[in-house]
Amino acid sequence: MRKNRDTATSSPASSGVSIQQRRGSTTQNSGVGSIGLPVLGGRGRGVMSDGHMQRTFHEAMRQRRTSLPANSLSLNGAKVTGSSLSEAKGLIADMLMNKELPGNVASCLRAVTMLLEQRPLPLNGLLNDFGLPSVVENPYGGESMVVGASKPRISNITFSTVTSATGLPTVPAEPNKARSSSYWKTEASPSNNNEHETPVDLLRKISVSRKESGTHVDTVVTTIDGQRYDTRELDTDPDLAETAVWSFPIFQMSRKHPQTILSRLTYNIFQQAELFRIFKVSPIKFFNFFHALEKGYWEIPYHNRIHAADVLHGCYYLSAHPVRSTFLTPKTPDSVLTPPHPHHQHSSIMSQLSTLELMALFTAAAMHDYDHPGRTNAFLVQVEDKKAILYNDRSVLENHHAAESWKLLNKPENHFIENLDPAEMKRFRYLVLEYILATDLKQHFEIIMTFTERLTEIDVQVETDRLLIGKLLIKMADINSPTKPYGLHRQWTDRICEEFYEQGDDERRRGLPITPYMDRGDAQVAKLQDSFIAHVVSPLATAMNECGLLPILPGLDTSELIINMEHNHRKWKEQIELENGGSYEAQITCNGGTAVNGVIEEESASTSDSPDPRRDSPLDSDLSQ
Known about the structure:
mainly alpha, two-stranded antiparallel ribbon, 46% helix
């Protein structure tokens, strides 16, 4: 791994050589430079015809990295946007990397670069559309989260890879590694007779088709610590057949497989996305890593391997289902799912991400709370925990999760990404770290505002915009509990409250002030959930819903996430009114709605243990129609 890191930070020139070698071309045989630029002899001077220049341009476009999909249609559009200008600058930079470029041509290209000015982003009026308060308290951590004033961001500049510390490019453009995922899959295309096939049916058909095609890992794997996985059994697990459903029976599965729920679900999702085949992933190293990862999650009520599996499932669901966003149009990048059926007018987020980005998102979801101690960042800072000292009180847990899980991945027996080339390895690490760090609620409103400011300019052909979308997905998956059917939401609520009470007990033993909502002697569950939904979940869910990033099932007018969130929020507000004799009115209502009068029905003691994840769901009646 150390060798890969050193190689990944090599000079742009060395990266150009690796691209040339991968494509199998040489200057001596073809008379072209490392990016396909014609080079003619004669005392270091060259002449390029118009035909040569046009062919050079298209050849360079074909060699753009897979994480920045581009097609010929984008070259013929009449509208010039900021993203297209930055893409042109990146293209010229790639051409200038050729050391054999004639001097006069290089001078011309540099002159063109000087003429390409990055226009400033327009500031739209969306910042306060979602009712964001200027300062809110994080009910799940105790910190104050400041929603600052809008400021211009130049965020559509396309870097191949940047460091989160400096924001500067660190490696050259990703090589266009030839992978089968560069082509649309045809084996699972729906027939013309299934015009009304639901997305769930389509995803199941894709899974079955892939199994029949022999792309699954057909072997029995035993990990280094003796855990046995039978992939034939995994491929036929009835619980894993429900991964395309939002009400995935996560607790039912955890009771059956308490020690392997995360590794089993990760295998299923990697299989559905064909990541084993695309990246030639070693099954033994894959299971070694993800089983070691799930073993590193503590046996605590909430931030455990079940939560990690739930967040992974959320990322898969949100990316796999078609959405109605205007900036997600059917294209042909390095994608996973088949092209939309003629009768399906919408595209999935998964179809717009490169397979490297997709694997990074799923891996980050599994890693994002590794070795969580069941205490908040604010607590660790207050008691001067060694992790807080190490990370200077900033995103303490998120930095710890990322660093420790990456160390685990670096062990030779766990390194399932060994077949990535140096540039891909660097890009994969960058994406994983960015996704994990985005789960810090301190960054919550900053990410939402960045998205709303960029909304009219978002271009999925620009990798920074795709990264922003990926951050929204993992954040939504991380706080998805209020958007689940009430039976699931209630179980997650009981678990987070118990973990909070354990922190409150620890604070009492240390003689510290007890954080709000964490005193088991003064339980305020309904107020906690009302605050969390109104201040944290609703702004993010509403922002994503307004721009069409939340899937909408056939037969529904809005996303089931929004339906569930409004229903759950209403139940908590009704409980607050009951506890206060009907005198309490919620300060912030979900989506601008009003509190519903009435008394919440009595919850039986078996609600939290109910195996039916759709218990008391508002979708029961809607889906039956």
